[in-house]
Amino acid sequence: MRRIIPNALIILIFIFVTGCTSNADTVDTPLYSGKGLYVGVVGEVPKVREDQIHFTSISFDELEDYTKLSSNYDAVIIMKEHLQEADDNKYVKVYTKAGIPFFFIGATKSFMPFVLEDVSYEHSSLTNFNNNMYVTGYFHNGEKFRSWEYGIYNDKVNEPNIKSVYSQMFTTIESIKNGMYK
Fold first, then answer.
1. Which residues contact 91 (CB under 8 A, 6 or more apart)?
2. For 33, phi and psi rounded to 5 degrees?
3. How far apart, in whole angstroms, are the C-alpha atoms of residue 65 and residue 39?
4. What whole-number distance in Å separates Cα of residue 115 and Cα of residue 113?
5. Structure confidence at residue 23 (pLDDT)
6. Residues of the signal sequence (predicted)?
7. Cystine design at 106: which of 17, 80, 113, 136 (Cβ 3.0–4.6 Å)?
8. Whole-angstrom Cα Rg for the chain
9. Where are the alpha helices (DSSP H) in the chain?
């Protein structure tokens, strides 16, 4: 009888400890549950949790015809590998006149190198307000602009946290699509 009580106590403590600990490297956030979105992507299409997001790979050449972007996409994402090219002066007009939001994945600097001529992303000292950002977003509706920064939970860049950021972005895109920022 003596052996059963200590063993049962050890098992209960183990269950309590393993059941009550959390993984400090990830956060469980809600999925984007809104309507379907059409998103153009310069670079590799990201992996997301949502099924109602429709990605289309696009090139910088396609971006240059910015008058067609808003009729084809709700937003455009530019992946980290393409940020240096994305800050070319010829794209400033795209970001400021297309009428849809742009999200720069992995941008450690402000959106400003992308929307101001002669400001280089590589040499810019314009950093995000919070250096722990993973995404910088920008939207100009023709009269005024809006920007966003999305951070990674606990600064841990991992798949669950990245997917959480995308869910937040999709909520922002839907808000713009529904006229919240007009």
1. 60, 63, 64, 114
2. -120, 15
3. 16
4. 6
5. 59
6. 1-24
7. 80
8. 21
9. 4-20, 60-64, 69-72, 83-86, 92-97, 112-115, 159-177
Q: Partners of 57 in the beta sheet?
A: 41
138 and 100 in contact (C-beta within 8 Å)? no
- Per-residue tokens: 158: 């991992």
53 is written with which tokens? 């997001």
| pLDDT the model gives residue 163 | 95
**Burial of 164 per CB tally in 10 Å (0-12, 13-18, 19+):** buried
Instruction: Provide the token pair at 3.
Output: 């052996």
pTM: 0.81
The torsion angles phi and psi of 69, rounded to 5 degrees, stand at -60, -45
Report the length, in residues, of the chain. Answer: 182
Q: What is the pLDDT of residue 6?
A: 54
